[in-house]
Amino acid sequence: MCLENGAFDIVFAVDTRTTSESVLQHIRDFIHTISVQFPISTNATRIGIVQFSKEAKSVLHLNQGTSLTNLVPALRSIDSMGAGQNLNEVLSLVRYVEFHPLLGRRTEYPGLVVLLTGSRSSTTKEELEFWRRSLRSAHANVVTIGLGSSMRDKHVTLSGDAVLRVDNFSDLDFSLAQRVVEYICKLSTL
Predict the structure, then answer these.
(1) Domain range for residue 158?
(2) At 142, which CATH number?
(3) How far is CA 52 from CA 49, 79, 87, 134, in A?
(4) DSSP characters for 33-97?
(5) pLDDT value, residue 58
(6) Which residues of 16-37 are buried (b: 16+ CB within 10 A; e: fewer)?
(7) pTM
(8) Is 20 inside a domain boundary?
(9) What was the pLDDT predicted at 168?
C-alpha cells in the first residue's frame, strides 16, 4: 500500500569526499533502487539530492525530483568533492534550503533525509540533537547509513533507531535498500 500510494519528500544527503567512481556508482545505484520503489511525481513522492564534503551543494531540489526523467541525470552528476566532511553544512542545506516550500517541500507529507556518510565527523552530539529537533519541526526524520568504523553512537542522536551500518559502500545493495524503504513506509503510519 505504501509503495503504490505513498507520498513522501525524500532528500538523499551523500558524502562524496574523495570517493572513487566505482563507489559513486554504488551510491547512484542505491539511490535509484530506493527511489523507483515509489511513484515519483509532483503529487506523489518527490526526490531531492545533496552532496557534501567540507561544503554541501544541491544536486536536485524536491520540486525538480518529480520524475525519473529528472532523477537519472541528477544521479549521473553526483561526483567526488574532495576531502573533509561537514555534517552541519549539509544538514543546514537540507533543513533550510531543500526543505523549503518554495523548493518543493510539502509539510502535509512525511519527509525523510537519507544520510549516506563514509567518514568520521567532528559534529558534536549536541549539534546533531539540534538538527534532529530542527528537522522534526519540518516534519522530517533521518535514517543514517554509514561505514562501520565511521559510525558513532552520536548518530543515534540524529536518527534514533534508524542507523544502518555497512562495511563499505559496495554493500549498498537491494536488501539494504529494502530496509530503507520499509523505514520510509513506517513513517506513513506514524
Answers:
(1) 2-15+25-49+56-120+133-187
(2) 3.40.50.410
(3) 10, 10, 8, 19
(4) HHHTTS-BSTTSBEEEEEEESSSEEEEE-TTT-SSHHHHHHHHHT-----S---HHHHHHHIIII
(5) 96
(6) bbebeeebbebbbebbbbbbeb
(7) 0.91
(8) no
(9) 79
Judge whether residue 11 has pLDDT over 60.
yes
- State the CB neighbour count (10 A cutoff) for residue 110: 22
Identity of the amino acid at 26: H
3-state secondary structure of 188: coil
Q: How many distinct structural domains can be found in the chain?
A: 1
Mean pLDDT across the chain: 86
d(CA 141, CA 129): 12
Task: Judge residue 142's burial from the number of C-beta atoms within 10 Å of its C-beta, 0-12 exposed, 13-18 middle, 19 or more buried.
Answer: buried
pLDDT band per the 50, 70, 90 thresholds, residue 169:
confident
Alpha helices in 99-153 (DSSP H): 125-137
| pLDDT surpasses 90 at 30 | yes
